[in-house]
Amino acid sequence: MPKNNWESELNTMFLRSFQRYNNIVLLGDLNCDLSQPDKGSKEGRALLDLMDGYNLANLIRQPTRVTSTSSTLIDAILTNKPRSFLVSGVFDLG
């Protein structure tokens, strides 16, 4: 999905969610590299900007896809209440 589409959809989803709920959690493989947000099409930067605008934190800190030549942080658990979580992380299913 093009960045303009998902950025608009996520913004609308966050706006509606914050109007109705106190605790927000979004998780998944968002394919926006948060470890290198300004690389390529800057999808990571767009996601970071949305996170800043809604005061969301990503509970996943370590790279989630690692090869011999690169690593990316594309899996995310975004929340406005990070202290509600004791432990978070990813593990290799392969």
Commentary on this structure:
The longest helix is centred in the N-terminal third of the chain and has 18 residues, at 3-20. This protein has one domain: Deoxyribonuclease I, Chain A (4-Layer Sandwich). α1 runs parallel beside α2. The protein has helices spanning 3-20, 43-53; strands at 25-29, 57-58, 65-66, 71-72, 75-79. With 94 residues, the chain is of the alpha+beta class. Strands 1-5-2 form a 3-stranded antiparallel sheet, with no helix packed on it. A two-stranded antiparallel sheet has the order 3-4.
Descriptive key words:
94 residues; Deoxyribonuclease I, Chain A; three-stranded antiparallel sheet; two-stranded antiparallel sheet; globular
Remind me, CATH topology? Answer: Deoxyribonuclease I, Chain A
Look at the helices and sheets and give the structural class.
alpha+beta
- Which CATH C-level class is it? Alpha Beta
Number of domains: 1
Rg of Cα set: 14 Å
CATH architecture: 4-Layer Sandwich
Give a quick summary of the entry.
By secondary structure, the protein is α+β, with helices and mostly antiparallel strands. Helix content is about 30%, strand content about 15%.
What's the layout of helices and strands?
Layout: H1 3-20, E1 25-29, H2 43-53, E2 57-58, E3 65-66, E4 71-72, E5 75-79
